[in-house]
Please model this.
Amino acid sequence: MDINKVLEQLDSISGEDGGRKTEEFLKDKIKEAGDEGDLSSELTLVNELIGFLRYMGKFTDAQAVIGDARRLCEDMGITGTVSHATTLLNIATLERAMGRHEESLKDYEQVQDIYDRVLAPDDYLYAALYNNMSLLYQETGDHEKSALCLKKAIPIISNYDDKRIEQAISRTNLAQTCLMLGRLDEAEAELISAEDIFEKDGGNEFHYPGCLNAIADLKMRKGDLKGAVNYYTKALGLLELKVGRDNPGYIAVSENLAEAEKMLKVSGGIDKEISGMELARRFYKEYGQAMIHEGFAEYEDRITAGLVGRGSQCYGFDDPLSRDHDFGPDFCIWLDDDLYDEIGDKLQEAYDRLPAEFMGFSRVTVIPPDGKRAGVMRTWEFYARILDVSEEFLLSYIDIFCKRRHLCEEDKKPEPGITAGVEAGRVEEECNRMELAFFGTVDEANLSQCTNGEIFKEGTGDFARIREGLKYYPDHIWKRKIAQELHYSAQMGQYNYVRMLKRGEKVASEIALSGYMEHTMKLVYLLNRKYAPYYKWLHRGMADLEKAAVIMDIFNAVYDMPKGDERIRMTTEIVAAIIIEELEKLNMTGGVPKEEKFLDVYSRII
Model:
């Protein structure tokens, strides 16, 4: 049999009939090769059939075809060769498509064993193997291993100029894995490269619809519903031409498109990529600014407006999931008590008359259980409510803050004199006592909510003075907090986590591990001189930090490790080393030997 001619004929067959003609052709030619005793051609065509069945999702005869492929390898005496590995790779990939993951992994591992014995480490065949193993790990939910395989494959593929399409496929697969891991920026970068390669190739390659579908998935995650619909539609058109409407891939993308269109219809066709802060800022500039200037001009310089407080949009953390509650075009207006008594009700009435909808979003009309988050508010009441303290207690602290600031200014004057020095010492003691009482009472997450967000218009009232007073801990409080979190991090992670495991106290060990992560993340915020937010944003917020921010990725890895994995204990020591390095930069190690990694030791000297 002239196998090259047969393969040319195979390539010329159209797939518009759902692959029926292709399947019939392959089966006829396999029988013909078998009748002729041409085992080499028969194996080549069986491999082609395996690939065809996988792509078309036709698994009825798959097991018999797999058996034929294994038999042919034995009959030809090619066990342990690259040809044998190629066939095993095709078999494993078909098994993966059939959902037979354990058998698939065993065959992939056998392929790798053969490659390790006969190939150079940078041989292109490794890339194909890593790509396929990545897909298997992706389907079994082990996305970290999936990403690792792809990151091994892409550098190998990139060395081959004639493998640009394969590079695009690998980058698409990596992007899909990154989407699973929530790494949207990394996914976007890979998809931009992949789409560019596919487009330059003409946009007709079989795997291009998969890239388009991944781009649509990314746009869905980012709230760009119009973009998602466009890309799902484009992917669907190509899939219909290549595999027909009965193909599982076509059906899956069709379902994705229907869901995107449904969400777009519900949203009124609005592009929801805008952040909550940007929406509030635009609403204020479009309507709020004129409302204040035209209706309350004589009070304008005393009014402060912006968006601060509770809610993910105040941190810039909001995403499409955030929009099912307390999300809309609203902003805050803060007034001192005397001004509120004079114009508060009228200003609120004017605020309520602003458009009920803006840029396709409805304004929030239900007040949450924890109190009003937008509209006209009394400044002191707003801060006291978030901090969960009385207005009197807050006022006492702000007075002390102003005293300390005045004291600092006096210190800068030349030769303040003995009497001034004694008075300064008394004020210093008074400030320290009040600061200890205040910051020992208020929760750090509440302090974070008081200092987040954005001011759109700054007035002359007390708002800015209070915000400045709450900006961050005084140094002596900051150091106490660092010592406290060092202690908790060491006790929970470096000490009790391991002891609980040794005792077989699995639940207690997980509690210790969770507490260790929480206190270590709070410690990282302290090292960056930033308040730690509410627990659900504690990890997310680390992406915006500079010092020791790599701990965010380390904790992602810990989360993916099996419970009780020895590597978890090892990561606590890695994290400790990172923390100690930052303490050294702050001159907070107190001469402790560098080899000391138990963080509690450092907590005692700060």
Notes: Residues 475-502 form the longest helix (28 residues). The chain has 26 helices and six strands. The radius of gyration is 32 Å. The mean pLDDT is 88.
